[in-house]
Amino acid sequence: MTNPNVVLHVADVHKRFGGLHALADIDLQVEEGKTHAIIGPNGAGKSTLLNVIIGKLAPSSGQVVFDGAVLTGKKPFQINQLGIARVFQTPEIFADLSVLHNVMIPALAKRDGMFKLNMLRSLDSETGIRAEAEHMLEDVGMLGRREMLAGSLSRGDKRRMELAMCLIQHPRLLLLDEPTAGMSRHDTNTTIELLQKIKARGMTKVIIEHDMHVVFSLADKISVLAQGRIIADGSPDDVRGNPKVQEAYLGGTH
Ligand SMILES: Nc1ncnc2c1ncn2[C@@H]1O[C@H](COP(=O)(O)OP(=O)(O)OP(=O)(O)O)[C@@H](O)[C@H]1O
Q1: Residues having CB within 6 Å of any atom of ligand 1
Q2: Domains of the chain: total
Q3: Which of 86, 93, 151, 192 would you call most buried, defined as having the most Cβ atoms within 10 angstroms of its Cβ?
Q4: pTM of this prediction?
């Protein structure tokens, strides 16, 4: 039976790369307002799954449905327009522009339907969007760095800026790809607090993460991938005690 709270449904998805079955029989249901973590050892298929959701990769079979709309076959920018934002992919930032301008650009692109280069010339006249970008930067603790060049930011600050770039789009679903990778413990804890704050506002999130401290601090539900299949699915407590999960990680690097 269909659960009315499910906002994202990855339905019977398979992805093959030549002879490699990178995703098999994937059925994933993400509920509105929840934080759903996808974990698994290296090579399990996590990035492939995320790329199928955002339209970067086409599944070999199956489909992805978001809020009643079939995403499969749509282009990444169309999926983004439907309310899905992805954070912390390879940064798509303008290194030579200020932090503030970087945060304004996705809001302008959303308002006008796409990014156009001539937007860069009119940034200073967009006072409404500027105020909103400042608000987002304040939210992620970056207002004091708004005039810095994005390219000169530390790794942790760059990620906070990327989060502001996503939040300004007011997405219904936020996808986070290893949001704390390479961060110090201090920056990781700051990011956890920030994501908890966003969670309290009811934003739905899918998070891929290797750091179990981050996963167990944030997730309402966890799906465990191993060799392209979901081997366990449930609450953090269910997953923690599942012998299949412990076995999948044995011999892994995590
Ligand atoms: N474009 C591609 N062409 C061929 N094989 C690929 C491609 N992308 C991924 N793979 C393979 O698919 C499998 C799943 O890879 P994927 O990157 O999704 O795993 P992952 O769980 O994200 O791993 P990690 O935690 O190391 O990032 C791996 O065996 C990988 O080598």
Answers
A1: 17, 20, 22, 40, 42-48
A2: 2
A3: 86
A4: 0.88
